[in-house]
Amino acid sequence: MKQHHSDIHTFAAVYALSALDGSEREAFGDHLQHCDECRQEVAGFEATAARLAVAAAQVPPASMKQRTMSAIEAVRQLPPRVPVAVTTSLAGRLRRKVVPLALAASLAAGASFAGLAAWQYQETADSQQQARQVQRQLDAVSTVLSAPDARAVHGRATNGALTSVVASERQNKAVFTATGLPTPAPGTTYQLWLDHEGTMRPAGLIRTDGTVLVDGNPSDATAVGLTLEPSEGSSQPTTTPLLLMTLPA
Q1: CB 106 within 8 A of CB 49
Q2: Beta-carbon neighbour count of residue 229 at 10 Å?
Q3: Which band of pLDDT confidence, cut at 50, 70 and 90, is reported for residue 138?
């Protein structure tokens, strides 16, 4: 993959997570009025953010409200924050540094306050493991989406699903997004593939609409494929590809 100038289509994920500044958000909002693919992609990222947030949430214990209200009385009131002026050039540098954190925070923001607070009280090993897995997913996806050299391509599978791949040569990773995937038949799932000079290598599963990190090394791959496979996945494609999309160069 070769590095190119920024493409406005790559802003879909950042726009969906409210991580663009005012002028960029306004410009991309204007672009959305004329781009069906970007509207579909934004919807997919928003749905993925909600699902990831729900995965991290926990049902709060019944006694939590009373404990929280009691604790409020003992919390010291903080003084108001005074905004600090920042020069344009410095603001730009700071924004580039905090975009990965902003993306991860935005993805997690869909969880309710009660769910997040209960998560802090949850002490079981299963919940802790789930939290770590969700955080790793957020970090991996946001790192690719916010990479300075991120490039995107868009396609449509034969079953009608709209798809996108965002790849970063610097990160040596790629992210796959699908919107409008029909529900697979019982016992089957969608599987991703990386095409290495005609050799198809497994690259992860995607069971429904959303965004996933592509497994494997995309640097020497030429395309991403999508097939319908048994629910546990396959070592080689067993069905005709629904999609074979050239990786962004």
Answers
A1: yes
A2: 21
A3: confident
Enumerate domains of the chain plus CATH numbers. 8-145 (no CATH), 151-246 (2.60.40)
Q: Are 210 and 234 in contact (CB under 8 A)?
A: no
Tokens of 27: 């410009």
Structure tokens given for 65: 């409200």
Chain Cα centroid distance, residue 160? 21
State pTM to two decimals: 0.54
pLDDT in tens, 87-123: 344 444 434 444 444 444 444 444 444 454 454 555 5
